[in-house]
Specification:
Order of helices and strands: HHH
Number of strands: 0
Helix content: over 70%
Strand content: under 5%
Largest sheet: none
Structural class: mainly alpha
Distance between the termini: 36 Å
Shape: flat
């Protein structure tokens, strides 16, 4: 089975770049989280919390891209 990296390295690089931008935004001191970090540190709870942050970041980054074009 081929991965995206194998099929389309340029698209894969673009997604990796967007991921790094998202990480920078989350780590910014003025970033407002959707919810506080979960008290439950099990993998499922951490994945759910990160999913909410990614959902929010996806909308914010989409709006920024649309405004820049």
């Amino acid at each position: 089975m081929q991965t995206l990296k194998d099929r389309d390295p340029q698209e894969f690089a673009g997604l990796v770049g967007l991921y790094h931008l998202a990480i920078e935004q989350v780590n910014a001191p003025d970033y407002e989280r959707v919810a506080p970090p979960p008290q439950d540190k099990t993998p499922g709870a951490l994945i759910d919390a990160w999913g909410l942050e990614c959902f929010k970041l996806g909308f914010e980054m989409g709006i920024q891209l649309a405004q820049n074009e």
